[in-house]
Predict the structure.
Amino acid sequence: MAEAHQAVAFQFTVTPEGIDLQLSHQALTEIYLSGVRSWKKRIIRLKNSVITGVYPASPSSWLFVVIAILATMYTRSDPSMGLIAKIQEHLPVSQSMSTQCQAVVSAVLFSTMLWLLLIFTMRLCLKQLLSYHRWMFEQHGKMSTTTKVWVALVRIFSGRKPLLYSYQGSLPNLPVPTVKDTVKRYLESVRPLTDDSQYERMTQLATEFESSLGNRLQWYLKLKALWASNYVSDWWEEYVYLRGRSPLMVNSNYYGMVCKSPFFLAKSAVPCCSYQFERMFDTCRIPGTLTDSVQHWQDSDYIVVYHRGRYFRLRVYQAGRLLSPREIEFQIQRILDDTSPPSKGEAKLGALTAGDRIPWAQARKKHFGSGVNKRSLDCIERAAFFVTLDDDEQGMLGDDPEASLDRYAKSLLHGKCYDRWFDKSFSVVYFKNGKTGINAEHSWADAPVVAHLWEYTLATDCFQLGYNAEGHCKGEVDSSLPRPQKLNWEIAPECEEQISQSLTVAQALADDLDFHVLSFKDFGKGRVKRCRVSPDAFVQMALQLAYYRNRRTFCLTYEASMTRLFREGRTETVRSCTSESSAFVRALEGGEVTEVCRRLFRSASEKHQQLYRLAMTGAGIDRHLFCLYVVSKYLGVESPFLKEVLSEPWRLSTSQTPVQQVELFDMVNHPEYISCGGGFGPVADDGYGVSYYVLGDSMINFHISCKHSCPDTDAHKFGAEIRKALHDLIQLLSPSHREPSKVGESRHEFKKDL
């Protein structure tokens, strides 16, 4: 209990002579240094707020304007056209202030107002410039004169050295599409999925909605768009994520795995919204009976570590400074060497966060509302993030590396169902053999934000911090570091029963998950680009072809696209199954001649790129329809059209894992440091979840999930179909390959060559 005593600032003993008060100098010093650190962070926040608040100008530009105005006054000219004199007339009369001093004060006030007006004008101009998105629809490699002028103006109005949140006030708001356009695009998206009678029925419902209720609901949405920063994001977070009552594990959380370390792509010249970064650390999802909430705290100076059924509080600050990597390693080793047993009910406590939300909310209120349980739970929820030290070994191991990679993915997604804290914003998992990964809660942010953090962290670890010859982190260790503090619990039998029930629910969910990681190394985006095709469109067409071969039908397909070109933007849906893509698949499978298949593929690819661009620029379908549905619920009116739209299952849910920061890592010279990407569970019980990660020019990783309980899905079989589809498409498009008249004959020859 030595570490507990060190945390006490004073002790007292009652004696016959009175009270003997003993102050702990070390504890008081720590309190003082913690206060200093907290104030330093407040000052830094204030400084950053000022810099961000005046962007694209700088605080020093105020002094420049003041000096310029005073200089012109010295030359007896009046740049204010009489306004400085007007300000001087209304200054409070003071005998201690001379007329000349009053003139200077008036000039400073005028200069400040002029400076603020210039900032407002520059922001307004930048906001209008960033509302221009025609550059995205131009042919790759060709830039119009208008876009060239736009790029130059953006650079002029963007200022220098922006901070993370500098552009927030200059980003445009997400536009509300017209009901007519949304309904038209929706009907186009369902045409390949319906027969003539079904399509006619859906067209009638859509027409009735557009001509009646749709306009009324649209009026409320436009009103919200005028008032709020983003008409979608708050409702999306509330109704899609926080109101879900099913387990977060598998259903909502996602993971990222690391073979060694990732590489990164170049930053875009166009700014993206950064508001999701605000809740990255010190954040936890709190369960509720009707709806959950996301709580964010500030200045957490510790992390929580789980190891062999115990929870430890590990402070990462000492004497007002951040611990060195070597010191953190030293503290982690102390946890690994700790042989103390878990408290009663502690070992599988995390299962509460893996099960259904309502039982967890009830248990939290009843058993964790006061006393030692509340203090320990608060410690976990307020931690910067959560760390699991897993005793298992993961990665590409043994004689069957593919199967071991599948186990690695499943472990990151659900673990043992109790050794992750699924409510935390993110949990970092370290395995016994040094492999690592991350599990993230979805409500507070989307995968690109977590990927950005993970990329930066791993690149810094590998290429800046590094390790010594013995494999230890570099640096020295302060021997006075207090030991990590083990959290205490008093778990009642009734609570243990609820933990057991939640674990049963979570274990059944984990056991039903079928997962396969397909590491495709035969070719990558380099060869695809030589065929003059978008790599994303190529992969999406391969997925459509693979799904059709797997199920002999088409399905509603979800591809996630980002809307972070707008303030507080999150995601939009690209409906990848189109009339063009289904026509191409049918032609290819029907044995049409090569030139016809190529032409249809080009058409399908261009259609997909067009839909992706529309989604990114605020002209998507699904978020608009979702918000119209929410408004209808608030108004208490029923819409058969919206009800049917929102009930359609996404049997193929896809997402491309972004690779973002090329300046941190050189993959050409360090090809051994490659990430395997990340993944998520299936959205529909009878469908697939597919995440893909395009690695450089020669590799594409697919993370495929489905459920064992569905007899029509199989992750490994679908992976095999994806592999075959990729080969068939690249063969079809390869300009150097002379094919016979029938693509089917070409595929046969290709198999023999393999």
